[in-house]
Design brief:
This protein is of the alpha/beta class and 409 residues long. It has 17 helices and 14 strands. The chain has helices at 27-37, 67-72, 86-97, 110-113, 118-124, 149-155, 177-200, 210-215, 219-228, 262-271, 286-291, 293-304, 309-318, 329-334, 336-340, 382-388, 393-402; strands spanning 18-22, 41-47, 61-62, 65-66, 76-81, 101-104, 129-134, 204-209, 245-249, 254-258, 323-325, 344-349, 353-358, 405-406. The strands form four sheets. Strands 8-7-6-1-2-5-14 form a seven-stranded mixed sheet, with helices on both faces. The protein has a three-stranded antiparallel sheet with strand order 9-10-11, covered by helices on one side. A two-stranded antiparallel sheet has the order 3-4. The longest helix has 24 residues, at 177-200. The chain is elongated and about 85 Å long. The two termini are 36 Å apart.
């Protein structure tokens, strides 16, 4: 297992980008995490009264620290500020003057009520990239609604096509895909805006939402609906356009089989010793296989139940047929490819010790991303960050005494 610390902090492709993350729970912090992993200096600003709600999403804990918070906030520095306190607001504005990016994911008009909306901050720093991640976006009839992943999965159409079959209770995708995707889209938007800034010196607003993030997962299903006027329905693990492309039961578990194109289909029939099915009118081409998908899955399962998943993986890999086992999360953590690609790594935390975390999913050969810093303790870097922004120790002590600044002191 890699320790994930082969590269010095700030050496990724975004080295030099300065980010203020005024975000909580997941979508905004995911955006900050992506930028931090790629080398940006991300300063997480938490509210003075206990910080990010994810700190209280327990159990599980490691040595009293929230596992969820540590996952979302590695590679960031953390300070605690009271933005309603005049001195706390003044500190925040000083940070903004030197920042390239602000990330926020509060409800509609929250930042404006604090006097920290885009119009105010861009006047202070015209080059600021102001990234807003919300439930439904900052415009439109739903702009004032609060948003959560479950709500976005339902309203984006994802839940209407997730589950075993029509007529069953709605099922959401297990991971919070709208939250995570919104964070990734936010990071993508920030990077595009940063390129524009480097060319022109101009900042801009970047606005995305959980709702739009969910919609982006419906490309195939939306294409079908646009073309036919028929709304797709749940199909379990099957694909709406290709077959066989789904989970098939084996002797001891399940295997995902991607054999939709003609060559792979014929290879499957060879390895399961069922070549006559190639001439069966029900399965003669992809359209026929889709029309008879349930019968096809049943016949394939009869053959696949003769061997274990591991035995089939050897056979299918040798034949060049795309396939993979259905792994649990714990099994994925032990998978040799995940380990080789450093998707399971470790980082040292000042309280929790050496902890496991997920690695960075994009590899840069010249400017590699790295995980070099654990999630911050509450207000851990308050003094350090303010010193770097020109505050004296006496001024920082006064801010602590006034209650505008939080942390260990």
């Amino acid at each position: 297992m890699s320790n994930g610390q082969h590269t010095a902090a700030g050496s990724g492709p975004l080295d030099g980008m300065r980010v203020i993350e005024l975000a909580h729970v997941m979508a905004g912090p995911i955006c900050g995490l992506m930028l931090a992993d790629m080398g940006a200096d991300v300063i997480k600003v938490e509210n003075i009264n206990g910080g990010d709600d994810t700190r209280r999403m327990v159990p599980p804990q490691i040595e009293g620290e929230s596992a969820a918070f540590m996952m979302m906030n590695r590679n960031k520095r953390g300070i605690a500020l009271d933005l309603k306190h005049p001195d706390g607001r003044a500190v925040f504005l000083k940070l903004i003057r030197n920042a390239d990016v602000l990330i926020e994911n509060y409800r509609h008009n929250t930042m404006e009520k604090l006097g920290l909306g885009y119009d105010t901050l861009c006047e202070l720093n015209p080059g600021l990239i102001y990234c807003e991640i919300s439930g439904f976006g900052r415009t439109g009839p739903y702009r004032e609604r609060g948003g959560f992943d479950l709500i976005a999965q339902g309203m984006s159409g994802i839940m209407s096509v997730t589950g075993e079959a029509p007529g069953r209770p709605p099922v959401k995708v297990g991971p919070p895909v709208s939250d995570i995707t919104a964070g990734i889209l936010g990071a993508m938007g920030v990077n595009a805006a940063y390129i524009h800034k480097l060319k022109t010196g101009q900042g801009q607003r970047v606005d995305t939402s959980l709702f739009e993030a969910g919609i982006t997962h419906t490309y195939w299903q939306s294409a079908i609906c646009f073309a036919t006027g028929i709304t797709p329905e749940p199909m379990g693990s099957a694909h709406p356009l290709n077959a066989p492309y789904q989970s098939i039961e084996t002797r001891d578990g399940w295997i995902n089989l991607g054999a939709a194109n003609p060559n792979n289909w014929l290879r499957v029939l060879q390895v399961i010793d069922a070549e006559p099915l190639a001439k069966d009118p029900r399965f003669i081409d992809n359209a026929a296989r889709m029309a008879n998908r349930e019968a096809l899955a049943s016949l394939l399962a009869e053959h696949f139940r003769k061997k274990t998943t591991d035995e089939w993986m050897v056979v299918l890999n040798d034949a060049g047929i795309p396939a993979g086992p259905v792994l649990t999360i714990a099994e994925m953590h032990r998978d040799p490819q995940a380990l080789h690609r450093e998707m399971i790594t470790t980082v040292d935390h000042p309280v929790a010790g050496t902890i496991e975390t997920l690695g960075t999913p994009v590899k840069f050969h010249t400017t590699p991303a790295a995980i070099t810093r654990s999630a911050p303790l509450f207000g851990q870097h308050s003094r350090e960050v303010l010193q770097q922004h020109g505050y004296s120790d006496a001024e920082i002590d006064a801010l602590f005494d006034s209650g505008a600044l939080g942390g260990p002191g």
